[in-house]
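Practice problem: predict the structure.
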Amino acid sequence: MEQFFVTAVKILILLNPFAVLSTFLSLTAEHTPMERFWISIKSGVAVMAAGIILFFCGQAVFSLLGIDIYLFKVGGGVILMICSVMLVWGDNRKNKRAVRSGESGGIAVVPIAIPMAVGPGTAAGLIVIGLERSNFVMTCSNLLALLLSTILLTALLALSTQAERVFKKEGIQIITKLSGLFLSAIAAKMIIEGVRYSLNLA
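Answer:
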């Protein structure tokens, strides 16, 4: 049970909920609360679908490319570290690109679900978590952790109007930067583990 909650928290951090919320608020500024609600539901479904694909297709991709989980941990950890630095320092260009992408409609999947919630770093982290399943029980536990994290993200977006009032713009920015710090710790752990096992230093 403890491992389940640890995995759920890890996935939630990977999904960058407050960075996603910040983008969601900017893209849906002209939408009604009901429209925001349905956009958040569609985004949650897209995030869950992407997560399941990453969970189960990681091994097949690894076999095709002839790499192992430890090499991927190093590469994925580096990407995740870059993403965390961008969260801490701020990446206005990404937000501007997201706004432009959202002008044509269909913003629930792109850019909110992908790439804001499930970007390269998040994808790397989800693949690693999926590959670390050792049995059926662990697989079910990881999937439930993904489901719980996705539900929490969806709920945050669905309650975006209230969240905006509670946290304010500055509060959301602060929490986003703190999420970036935790994300950097996850990235560092992935890199260290990958290098240690790849070089047989364990």
